[in-house]
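Progress note, sequence design subtask.
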């Protein structure tokens, strides 16, 4: 929102500099974003009167003028065609400095074709006041010669402010002027109206068929207008806030918008069928071409202003292509209305069209201002457009809305704002803000909020008003006393953050997706059926219609997008909440972790190592390292069949005897369209059991000073015998001094070993922390193990 300081001063006296004003506005909640000063008239330019004009003896396009500057009559040689005697013009005296893009230009005494010239009479463009360079700038004859021109044109100061959505009353100069008056403790006044005499309006000039969407509509006719260029003062007002002047009638409606915050529209009455307007819902399939050339298809949810046949304007948003005022317009119908804010917001968003009018209507219009704005605009049009006849206002309304009455307890206000303020000061602030204060007692009062204050609803809102007007910077600083409520270890968030940091420490990159997903994404996790999904009542779109039952679908979507952009080396994870409607399957809401690995195993290296790609054991090893870091006491992996993963590649993760997740290669049906030849490995884990999993205790032991002894054991075993079972069996065998078990080899070949048989070899490490082991005791332990393997696992020793 752009404000002009000189425009503000038309309503409220400002007896402080711009810096102070901006500081007060910002502390009152009207945040100032920037201040821009327009070029000022150079010092030394004064008002002068041309006393005499004679032709130059040596030129047919120059004139020699005698000019009175308020002190003396001086001679000026001028080339402008309009330097006639009797005119009042700007005069740059000798020594005046003009600043141009090319540098500084100083006025000096000079001779032009042999005739002395003692200054320069100026055009509006030369002074930076307008873009007219066809001749001298002609000033008002009432200005006294010698008057400094910077006093006549003091320059403009544009203040850009950020207006919060709950304060539509600040979207005008008058709205801000009310608060400035309160802050400076002065009085703000609107211009007095002098509306010309009116004649009766035609019958049925205005009809409202959708009163729920249009609670107030005021229309009136102005006949015999002359559409043309606006006067300088009006054009300057619009330019000062960044608007482009168009013609006098349109400029007046824009002026009212910026002055009062009331959107208005002027229809060419002769283009309205039956010369009337109807505020109604659009009919299904009806179309309109707006002023910006957009063709829009309407629905009954859209409010239009129509004539007897067709829509002429999209109510509260933009006029129709043939509704506007042109240079041929003679009769206009002036609209000043109040539309339902939620309908204008929905229309603007759905149709993808917005304007300064819709911006204000979306936030809420002042019901009472529509009447004053209609009179103010009518007065200006009759004056500036030479209107011949003005009809009375025709108003259709469902009645004035009730004003909000709020109970205000003085002690409650003081407790909310945090500093002492007397009852009288509180009441005075309310009155200066134009709130009605009644029934004042020693403890409370009753405050009635005017209709332009749509943000005031409860007592806390009144406390905010007192705080911002009294001064947020005056709230005293109080020491904060903190108490330890509980250990940081019991903080719910720190556990989740620790888990995230652990995975980041393993080299994974965190993903974050929306909790709302499409049906296709949700059902990519084959654990769920459509009936297991939670459907949103009012989704933003079909792509965000469900709460995600799993992280799997969206993670696969991220993998697909990365692969499409040839980012093939991925280490991703996400931890987040997932939701399920089937409580027999999962809790309604729980925490899940999903990991993705694909691409080169060592992307940062070179040569042959760049050809190594991630496989099942990379992901399994990552999970093992993570669980060991979390000191999970008991976990293992079991072969599994899972629709999310390719057949023969899936495993289930078991923690403390309970399956909490699965891992494997992404199923071909889900990855078939991806442009990669490398397998994608994924793991989906229920994260909440990891918070409560039993942890193993860790004890520090001294490093042994004695050497280790190694032995190998090899055997033929059925293919069904898993590596994990062998390691667990050896550890449970109770071999004395056994320190570690390492797999050496697993070999399968039907031609060599036979069908259903594999060769397995393990390395055993023995060590005693207090002495060097002897061969006899180590060999005895190994023989004991060989016997157990043969007897209990039914393997053939080698």
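Output:
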């Amino acid at each position: 929102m752009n404000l002009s300081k000189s425009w503000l001063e038309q309503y409220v006296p400002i007896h402080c500099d711009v810096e102070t004003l901006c500081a007060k506005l910002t502390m009152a909640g009207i945040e100032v974003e920037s201040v821009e000063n327009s070029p000022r008239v150079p010092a030394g330019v004064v008002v002068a009167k041309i006393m005499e004009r004679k032709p130059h003896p040596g030129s047919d396009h120059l004139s020699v003028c005698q000019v009175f500057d308020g002190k003396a009559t001086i001679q000026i040689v001028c080339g402008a065609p309009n330097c006639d005697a009797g005119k009042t013009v700007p005069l740059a005296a000798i020594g005046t400095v003009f600043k141009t893009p090319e540098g500084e230009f100083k006025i000096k005494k000079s001779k032009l074709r042999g005739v002395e010239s003692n200054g320069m009479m100026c055009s509006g463009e030369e002074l930076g006041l307008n873009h007219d360079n066809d001749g001298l700038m002609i000033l008002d004859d009432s200005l006294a010669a010698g008057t400094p021109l910077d006093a006549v044109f003091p320059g403009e100061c544009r203040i850009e402010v950020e207006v919060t959505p709950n304060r539509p009353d600040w979207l005008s100069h008058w709205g801000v002027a009310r608060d400035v008056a309160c802050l400076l403790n002065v009085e703000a006044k609107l211009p007095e109206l002098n509306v010309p005499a009116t004649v009766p309006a035609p019958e049925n000039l205005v009809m409202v068929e959708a009163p729920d969407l249009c609670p107030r509509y005021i229309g009136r006719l102005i006949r015999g207008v002359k559409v043309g260029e606006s006067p300088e003062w009006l054009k300057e007002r619009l330019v000062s806030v960044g608007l482009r002047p168009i013609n006098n009638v349109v400029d007046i409606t824009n002026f009212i918008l910026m002055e009062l915050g009331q959107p208005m529209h002027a229809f060419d009455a002769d283009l309205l069928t039956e010369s009337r307007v109807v505020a109604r819902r659009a009919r299904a399939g009806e179309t309109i071409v707006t002023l910006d050339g957009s063709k829009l298809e309407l629905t009954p949810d859209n409010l239009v202003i129509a004539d007897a046949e067709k829509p002429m304007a999209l109510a509260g948003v933009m006029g129709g292509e043939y509704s506007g005022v042109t240079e041929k317009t003679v009769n206009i119908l002036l609209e000043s209305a109040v539309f339902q804010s939620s309908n204008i917001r929905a229309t603007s968003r759905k149709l993808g069209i917005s304007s300064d009018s819709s911006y204000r209507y979306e936030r809420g219009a002042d019901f009472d201002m529509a009447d004053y704005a209609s009179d103010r605009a009518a007065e200006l049009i009759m004056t500036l457009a030479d209107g011949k006849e003005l009809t009375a206002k025709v108003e259709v309304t469902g009645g004035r809305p009730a004003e909000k009455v709020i109970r205000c307890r003085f002690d409650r206000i003081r407790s909310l704002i945090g500093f002492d303020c007397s009852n009288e000061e509180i009441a005075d602030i309310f009155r200066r803000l134009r709130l009605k204060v009644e029934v004042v007692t020693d403890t409370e009062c009753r405050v009635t909020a005017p209709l332009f204050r749509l943000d005031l609803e409860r007592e806390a809102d009144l406390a905010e008003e007192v705080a911002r007007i009294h001064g947020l910077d005056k709230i005293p600083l109080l020491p904060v006393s903190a108490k330890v409520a509980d250990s940081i270890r019991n903080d719910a968030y720190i556990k989740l953050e620790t888990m995230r940091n652990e995975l980041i420490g393993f080299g994974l990159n965190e993903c974050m997706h929306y909790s709302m997903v499409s049906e296709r994404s949700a059902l990519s996790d084959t654990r769920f059926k459509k009936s297991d999904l939670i459907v949103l009542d009012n989704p933003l779109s079909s792509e965000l219609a469900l709460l995600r039952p799993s992280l799997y679908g969206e993670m696969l979507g991220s993998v697909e997008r990365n692969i499409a952009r040839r980012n093939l080396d991925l280490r991703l994870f996400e931890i987040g909440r997932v939701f399920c409607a089937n409580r027999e399957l999962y809790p309604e809401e729980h925490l899940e972790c999903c990991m993705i690995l694909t691409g080169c195993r060592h992307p940062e290296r070179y040569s042959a190592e760049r050809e190594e790609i991630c496989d099942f054991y990379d992901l399994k090893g990552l999970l093992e390292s993570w669980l060991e870091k979390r000191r999970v006491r008991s976990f293992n992996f079991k072969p599994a069949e899972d629709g999310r993963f390719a057949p023969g590649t899936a495993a289930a993760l078991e923690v403390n005897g309970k399956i909490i997740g699965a891992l494997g290669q992404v199923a071909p049906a889900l990855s078939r369209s991806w442009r990669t030849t490398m397998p994608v490995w994924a793991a989906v884990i229920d994260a909440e059991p990891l918070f409560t999993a039993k942890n193993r205790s860790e004890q520090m032991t001294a490093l042994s000073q004695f050497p280790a002894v190694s032995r190998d054991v090899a055997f033929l075993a059925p293919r069904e015998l898993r590596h994990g079972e062998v390691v667990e069996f050896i550890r449970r065998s109770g071999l004395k001094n056994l320190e570690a078990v390492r797999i050496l080899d697993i070999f399968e070949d039907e031609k060599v070993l036979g069908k259903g048989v594999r060769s397995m070899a393990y390395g055993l490490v023995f060590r005693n922390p207090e002495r060097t082991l002897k061969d006899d005791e180590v060999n005895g332990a190994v023989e004991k193990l060989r016997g157990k393997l043969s007897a209990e696992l039914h393997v053939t020793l080698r």
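The longest strand covers residues 45-55. Work on this subtask will continue into the next period as scheduled.
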